[in-house]
Amino acid sequence: MTHGNAPDTPRSTLVVTAHAGDFVWRAGGAIALAAARGEKVTIACLTYGERGESAKAWRAGKSLEEIKAIRRGEAEAAAAALGAEVVFFDAGDYPLTVTPELTDRLVGVYREAQPDVVLTHPLDDPYNGDHPAAARMALDARVLAQAIGYPAEGEIIGAPPVFFFEPHQPEMCGFKPQVLLDISEVWETKRKAMECLAAQQHLWDYYTDLAVRRGVQLKRNAGPNLGLAHKTMAEAYMRPYPQVTGELA
């Protein structure tokens, strides 16, 4: 544990996501796996994606507040399907602006969640500035939450490893898979969570196909004799900080 609680304290995962759907498409498998192991998963959802990622609702003539309510409801249902808790910041998207106030709120979430693992966006995305903004605040808040002199409630945290989940346009974001996570056993759970996001139904098949492709890569890198399922599903991640280990494996 990064926070020195009792040995029987469940592990904790913190996911910092720019929009209501991001945590499902990009990290739903990791979230479902952690929850299935009995770990606590907290999702810090900075915006509802109401302006930039809700075109279907805008075309249907919905108001801003109606769209926020729709996207919040979808995110709550998806998080429940995955076994996670979600905290909404309602910071406003397109643009999501990095501010000391938002970063400070995130510090509070870090100290309350005491995460062993942090998942968030990569720092580069030329198509959507909200994603790197969320990542920047996630990394900054992680450092501040470690500082004993930082004026925020709660116990300081350790240095939980950070994993960047895969962006929608990986080639354009400098994303190269460094970690391939087998999510085959929870794939149906992730798909169920994806189907909670009716506002972005056009992405259901895209992220299903991506999981298949990453599964093929996982099998190729794992070797042919590990008993993997014929149709292995996977998610890809990068690491911004070095892995700390006592054994190369």
TrEMBL record:
SUPFAM superfamilies hit by this protein: LmbE-like
InterPro entries membership: GlcNAc_PI_deacetylase-related (IPR003737), LmbE-like_dom_sf (IPR024078)
Sorted UniProt keywords: Zinc
The organism's place on the tree of life at top rank: Bacteria
UniProt xrefs under Pfam families: PIG-L
Name of the featured protein: PIG-L family deacetylase
Native organism: Streptomyces tauricus
